[in-house]
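Pipeline run #58 for the internal structure catalog. This entry was flagged by the ingest filter as a single-chain record with no existing model, so it goes straight to prediction. Upstream metadata was stripped on purpose; only the residue string is passed forward. Reviewer on rotation: M.T. Logging verbosity set to normal.
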Amino acid sequence: MSSSSSLLSEDQLQCSICLDVFTDPVSTSCGHNFCMVCLKECWDSSSRCQCPVCKAEFPTRPELSVNTFISGLAAQFKKSVQVKSSSALEKHPSNPTKVLCNYCTDEQLEAVKSCLDCGVSYCETHLMPHKTAAKLKKHKLMDPVENLEDYICQKHERPLELFCRDDQTCVCQFCTETDHKTHSTVPVEEEIKVKKIQMGTTQVEVQQMIQDRLKKIEEISHSVQLNNQNIEKEKADSVEVFRALLRCIEKSQAELLEVMEEKQKAAERQAEEFIKELEQEITELKRRDTELEQLSHTEDHLHLLQVYPSLCSPPHTKNWTEVRINAHLRVETLRRALSQLQEELSKEMEKAFVIELKRIQRYAVDVTPDPDSAHPNIILSYDRKQVRLGKIQQDLPENPERFDRCLGVLGKEGFSSGRFYYEVQVKGKTGWDLGVTTESSKRKGEITLSPEDGYWTVILRNETEYKALDSSMIPLSLKQAPQKVGVFVDYEEGLVSFYDVKANSHIYSFTGQSFTEKLYPYLSPSLINYGGRNSGPLIITPVKTS
């Protein structure tokens, strides 16, 4: 116990109600600890039974039992503090300054009282006249103090027994007849009562501030713990993604090298066959050369004429002019391998996007369009989850936040920190705008949807033309038409990202942005109806997280 308690601080063994080391500590089901008496008094003075720290409510008042483990730690801590205090006193014994009697002449005795009227401190003997003489009995006595002049008016040499509330200073009786004549003055004792009440109120406020900060510490600690868990999970997911990518690359590399080696061996086998065949032809040609040489020296003319046709006819050999071994690597081999690698990497990237999408879907918020911002041609469904283009312009109040030319509508709630995510079904639409905008962005007249004007959007036009409206218009090449689009914002990171939810793929991201005000979801079903083909609604859908 002693080895562990030496590592504990007073803060760890401190009751958050009385702010002292625990006495008979008890624990609540929410995990907080208090002195038994402090917690009982807290519950006795309140109509609700709740934890003083986290405000968790209990349906029935819990039975309290002393936490013996914490009680042992607290007792050990108190003991160690007492030992330290005793040793400190032995090393540095206290020697408070004594107030001596001003009337003693030989040996000055210790004063027992100080008189504010006389401005003198007295021992028991010299104080006797103040107890017996009628005139002196009226003098104001107090416990002996060394700096008695601080309690006497320096101007009138009278006791500072009154308090001026106008100047917030202590004064004497004569001061109230001169400089403070028109001021509000009260006896010091009366003002002390007021000040103590105010101090009590201040103390309650300070204690509440302490509780608030203790709670905030718990919140921050919990946030750090949760953040660490999330980061560890993200690290594990990221490592697995890169491992999978490396496995794909290594597999493609191994397959490519295997193909190259097989081609190399095939070329070697072919070369060996060619050489063997050439050597056979050389042997046959040498034999004929020898026969021709011998025949050229023969005197048997008849024999020469008889064998000449067979020896001088063209030999049965191959035309080796066009025969060669290809020493160059075929380009299509590498290209085919890279194409296969690209396919494998695309599959792994899709898996990575699935992980990324699941991660950001945890920040899903409930987006509800704000009718006060909707363009008069926009029709909202009864549950305000569908946004469509109406044929007739509605007669609506002219609000400063209402769009009057751009066919847009904002989400009701804005966000000035953290992360948020929402999804919109765009199936069947031939045109739409989605994204976020700032609270002060332009709503009247012609609007340029760009980050410079407070809009971060991706749009669809003419059924197939997808564009990101960044500082310049960026065409987007998508493998397929998105059925549902997810919009994710990380306020502190300055990030706005768009995802194809069904395909688990990334569409576009605005990065490195600097947000300084509230951001609101922005939706537009597009002003162009494309012959009725764009009449379907944008539908804000609940986010399905796993």
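catalog note: DSSP finds eight helices and 21 strands in the chain.
catalog note: The first strand starts at residue 25 and ends at 27.
status: ready for reviewer M.T.
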